[in-house]
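hiii so um. not sure if this is the right channel but i have a protein structure encoded as tokens and i wanna go backwards to a sequence. like what aa goes where. can anyone help
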């Protein structure tokens, strides 16, 4: 934990957004604001510090004034590389941070009690990791990770592991079910129709 008892967070913005026409999904407009704004609004009260995981020119995120972390592994290996970037950032720059929250940049409806419930669940279950679930489906990238997993994750990536679920299962994970009504808080904006649905919920 940070000195105030909260984890730190990494927003995973490294996806290629092929189904949305390419580019950064977090920069798509949602209710006249970048979708990233909605993600940050949701998690900022719950964490002590935030970084963005993204590759390419970091200046496109200059407006937010947050650290931008490139994947430490080449060839776009997926979200595990972004989580590793976040864990290393937390370990190196956030003294006392014991936990890292990871969230994707395309989940604009994240719940206000996300960190509280994930932390409570991992303590009660005695597992290293807790991830979110809704409507009977796990969301392995929306999760709370011990910073001590940085080196084991680096080793796993080096050995070819790419599945977030597989890595989490190997180190102990519990899933926390969130209500999916009236709207699923983990709505994932993968297609234009999802963006319209999120706008309706927020509106």
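sure thing!! here u go:
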């Amino acid at each position: 934990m940070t000195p105030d008892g909260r984890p730190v967070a990494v927003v995973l913005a490294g996806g290629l957004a092929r189904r949305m026409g390419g580019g950064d999904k977090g920069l798509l407009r949602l209710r006249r604001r970048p979708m990233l704004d909605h993600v940050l609004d949701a998690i900022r009260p719950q964490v002590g510090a935030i970084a963005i995981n993204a590759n390419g020119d970091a200046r496109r995120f200059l407006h937010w004034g947050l650290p931008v972390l490139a994947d430490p592994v080449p060839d776009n290996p997926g979200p595990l590389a972004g989580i590793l970037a976040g864990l290393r950032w937390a370990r190196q720059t956030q003294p006392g941070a014991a936990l890292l929250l990871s969230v994707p940049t395309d989940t604009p409806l994240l719940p206000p009690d996300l960190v509280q419930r994930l932390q409570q669940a991992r303590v009660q279950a005695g597992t290293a990791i807790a991830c979110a679930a809704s409507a009977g489906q796990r969301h392995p990238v929306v999760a709370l990770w011990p910073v001590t997993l940085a080196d084991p994750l680096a080793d796993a990536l080096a050995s070819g592991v790419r599945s977030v679920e597989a890595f989490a299962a190997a180190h102990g994970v519990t899933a926390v079910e969130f209500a999916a009504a009236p709207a699923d808080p983990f709505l994932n904006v993968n297609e234009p129709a999802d963006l319209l649905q999120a706008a309706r919920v927020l509106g």
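oh and The chain has one domain: 8-202.
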